[in-house]
Amino acid sequence: MTKTALVVGASGIVGSATATLLNAQGWTVHGLARRPVAQDGVLPVVADLSDAEGTRTALADLRPDAVFVTTWARQDSEAENIRVNGAMVRNLLDALPAPDRPRHVALVTGLKHYLGPFEAYGQGTLPQTPFREEQPRLDIANFYYAQEDELFAAAARDGFTWSVHRPHTVIGKAVGNAMNMGTTLAVYATLCRDAGRPFVFPGSAAQWQGLTDMTDAGLLAEHLLWTAQTDAAHDQAFNVVNGDVFRWQWMWERIADWFGVEAAPFNGTVRPLAAQMADDAPRWAAIAARHGLAEADLHRLASPWHTDADLGRPIEVVADMSKSRRLGFTGYRATDDAFFALFERLRADRIIP
Fold first, then answer.
1. Which of 54, 247, 311, 341 is deepest in the core (most CB within 10 A)?
2. Secondary element (H or E) of residue 6
3. Which residues sit opposite 6 in a β-bridge?
């Protein structure tokens, strides 16, 4: 029988990749969003998860075999992040009719589980790298923990299985996404080429010199589906990264070469993208008009604040994948290939020239 999935945040970087994979595997896919966009093979579900009654009405007739929660709503403080995002998960799981057959719910969070929320990002006493799933929570408020607690409570009440997925920075396509390093770097490189200025690394010495890893959205989608279909992976949390490690001093040159721009070596001074790109909106609009691009609004494509947070961290960040490997997940991506595949897609979709 055809299985049914509910992808929450189906138009985002992770959600769209997950919906695409599920379609390819023959699932019936429902995509929940406040303002759904047209997606091949995705049946739209209109709901605002902050509205408990509206969510209940929207999901009243849906009985999915698997639910993939791939979205969150950024707020002005961590206290508000906890209140809003915890309530969103609670409202979603309360609204779904009790399962009459096995159901799995997968929640995507991230490495801020180990690094702390944006208000205290990479500060205080952090666990040793590589990060491992059995390391305890930090002694600090974090909306990821609030989301997990809502998931655990609903699973105990309704009897479904669950999984938590902790990717590193995700490489994938989604216009208007709040956390989008790949497209941000593509836009930044395009601006540098157009202006004839060097491609300046914006981050810290620790990120330039240290080891790191990332997560391809397609690989994360494979991991989500694998977990939903693997009994031994139920009721567990997992790190999800590509499987390779690199240093930004190497990757920066690779990205610069792809765009045909000069990579400026890190000179010891942190130069955030938020400052470098502060006045670039008119230039991007002009580039978009000249090349007939699909999006002329720089702010819909680039999220400098998020890329600055990742590339400005004072420690190297590597996540261990041994838990998934032991259970049989063998997915792998070379991170430079993941970047290049994204850039090719952005060019094909007329996001960049």
1. 311
2. strand 4-8
3. 30, 67
**Strands 246-247 and 211-212: what pairing?**
antiparallel
CA torsion sign for 299, 304, 305, 306 is positive
Residue labelled with tokens 């997915």: 331
Beta strand 104-108 with 66-69: parallel, antiparallel or unpaired?
Answer: parallel
Q: Name residue, tokens 């159901």.
A: 103
And the tokens for 29? 């896919």
Q: Which one is the CATH code of 4-167: 3.30.870.10, 3.40.50.720, 2.60.40.10, 3.40.50.150? A: 3.40.50.720
pTM: 0.95
Q: Strand, coil or helix: what is 244? A: coil
The residue annotated as part of the active site, out of 114, 144, 173, 188, is 144
Q: Judge whether 188 and 346 are in contact, CB under 8 Å.
A: no
pLDDT value at position 275?
Answer: 97
Q: Which pLDDT score, from 0 to 100, does residue 351 have?
A: 97
Token duo for residue 279: 């006045």
Residue 234 CB partners (closer than 8 Å, separation 6+): 104, 161, 162, 163, 227
Among residues 342, 266, 245, the alpha carbon closest in space to that of 301 is found at: 342
The pLDDT assigned to 30 comes to 98
For the chain, list residues with pLDDT below 70: 178
Instruction: Based on the residue annotation, tell me whether 323 is a catalytic residue of this protein.
Output: no
DSSP readout, 7-22?
Answer: EETTTSHHHHHHHHHH
- Would you state the pLDDT for residue 340? 98
Q: How far apart are CA 8 and CA 105, in angstroms?
A: 11
CATH 3.40.50.720 in the chain: give the residue spans: 4-167
Cβ–Cβ < 8 Å for 64, 92? no
Q: What is the rounded radius of gyration, in angstroms, for the C-alpha atoms of the chain?
A: 20
